[in-house]
Amino acid sequence: MPEVWGFSVEKTLRCGWGPIREEVLLDLRAEGHVVGIIGNWGKFCRSIRGWQDYVSFLSIGLSKEVWMCHFKEVLPIYDRYVLVGNTHKKAPGTNDDYAVAQKAGWDFINSWDFRDIVPLKRYQAECPPESGRRQDV
């Protein structure tokens, strides 16, 4: 059964100074999952040529928590809902993605742990871990 994978942008995807390559979204879609952006969709769309091929949805017009609750309520047909993001809260108005995911009833994966938790064969082969150095996905 397909899963829903939502990605924050800031400190998560490369275009938002995070560790995860945007091509990961293409791989998840190729596996049949529903993949989208929950966060700074404008930065994602401006940064990625052909962005519409990467995602099935963009969270527009609502806070992350409200949007995620609404999405799960309207489309309760998936076995798993996952937010990949960060827990980095620097300024008022920014999100702790872990807390947002908990409130919305979604699973959470920290962007820096993504590589270890979600093995994607192509990236494991391209980027073998170097001793003592964290690799981007």
Q: Can you offer a commentary on this structure?
A:
The structure is a single chain. With 137 residues, the protein is of the alpha/beta class. It has helices spanning 23-30, 41-47, 64-74, 97-104, 114-117, 121-126; strands at 4-7, 34-37, 57-58, 81-85, 107-110. Strands 3-2-1-4-5 form a 5-stranded parallel sheet, with helices on both faces. Helix 3 runs parallel beside helix 4 (97-104). The longest helix has 11 residues, at 64-74. The protein is globular, with a radius of gyration of 14 Å. Residues 124-134 have low confidence and may be disordered.
Instruction: Note poorly predicted spans.
Output: 124-134
Largest sheet composition: 5 strands, parallel
Shape verdict: globular
Radius of gyration: 14 Å
Q: Strand-residue fraction?
A: 5-15%
Distance between the termini: 24 Å
Count the strands?
5
Strands of the biggest beta sheet: in what spatial order? Answer: 3-2-1-4-5
What percentage of residues falls in helices of 4 or more residues?
25-40%
Spell the H/E element sequence.
EHEHEHEHEHH
Mean pLDDT rating: 86
Please identify the structural class as seen in this structure.
alpha/beta
Question: What is the count of helical runs?
Answer: 6
